[in-house]
Amino acid sequence: MASRSVDMQCWKCGAELKNLLLPFSRYEECSKCRADLHACLGCRHYDPTAADACREDKADFTLDKDKANFCDFFTVHTKAYKPQDTAAAQKARAALAEMFGEDLPADDVDSSLTAQTEADRALAELKKLFGEGE
Prior knowledge:
The chain is α+β, with helices and mostly antiparallel strands. 24% of the residues lie in helices and 10% in strands. Strands 1-2 form a two-stranded antiparallel sheet.
């Protein structure tokens, strides 16, 4: 099988991935978020409304649609990324923050940075609670 290159988006974070050689390995990952690229969510046959979420009727069932698999019918979906509507989650976070008297992090901060910042704050609170780091 001859190799060719393709430009695509990561199904998870939407990062532009340039010049990937096809067929790529089962172990190929997004250079930004490290998501497995040879996964159902990045396949042209993926359809959440279809039986087993796959339009290829000969494909074996795959439980974890976001994990790398050995499907022989995998075909790269170059525009698999679907931005999630996070309005409900943001509203819930705001309600919790208000309930506990906390400030919400800025919306424009990258979520991985926000998670790291929250982890750092939690660690600082634990150290303060147990009298460490003073």
